[in-house]
Amino acid sequence: MSINIPNPIKIYKIIHISKLPAIIKENYLLSDTEVHKRMPVGEAIGMKEIMRRRMEELRLNSHSDLYVGECVPFYFCPRSVMLYMLYMRNHPDIEYRGGQEPILHLVADMRIAVEYAEQAGLRWAFTNSNAGSRYFDDFAKLSDLDKIDWNAVRAIDWKNCKEQKQAEFLVEQRFPWELIEGIGVFSLERVNEVNKILAISNYQPAVNLKREWYY
User: Fold this and answer.
1) Radius of gyration in angstroms for the set of CA atoms belonging to the chain, rounded to a whole number
2) H or E segment and range at residue 10
3) Distances in Å between the alpha carbon of 167 and those of 56, 75, 114, 136, 179?
4) What are the residue numbers of the active site?
5) What's the rounded mean pLDDT across residues 165-180?
6) Beta-bridge partners for 127
7) Which of 21, 69, 77, 93 would disulfide-bridge 47, Cβ 3.0–4.6 Å?
């Protein structure tokens, strides 16, 4: 295994703050497929065409009957390429134009996530690039973590490694709210806003100002 593999390996899910009350109520983060079966709550920040492709076209090689969209996706880094597109507010396939300030980073530990999935009988995998593209490799063994380009994942200037920076960790169907160990936010105002929302939750992860996770 590459000495560049971080330990522990943290995974990051970005959501609009308006999604947080529904996650707390459900007690799970849900896959896009599961969300679309219900009445979606909160501001959507994804690309519609890519979300459709993930739900209807793109399957995992490691689990041939599992669509990408049937999994809850995480990145291996904050300050993702997707967040940059939200920050720019000009992508033609993203209806959301509210910028990066209302976006939260939900943080978990990958190995704990794997343990949860295996105990719950849910499949998991990770990719070495963007799982919304038509070309990516995916793996379902921890021994393959060296297939990820960790230097690209860590890169601040990612123009020459854009796809590799977007490596993803995927958990089938759902991910427990209680496994979110922290929430990174843009400003002190957001810290206070998130803490008010968390007042309705029996489980309250730490909320931290992480301006360096943003553009």
Assistant:
1) 16
2) strand 10-16
3) 20, 6, 16, 9, 20
4) 54, 168
5) 98
6) 138
7) 93
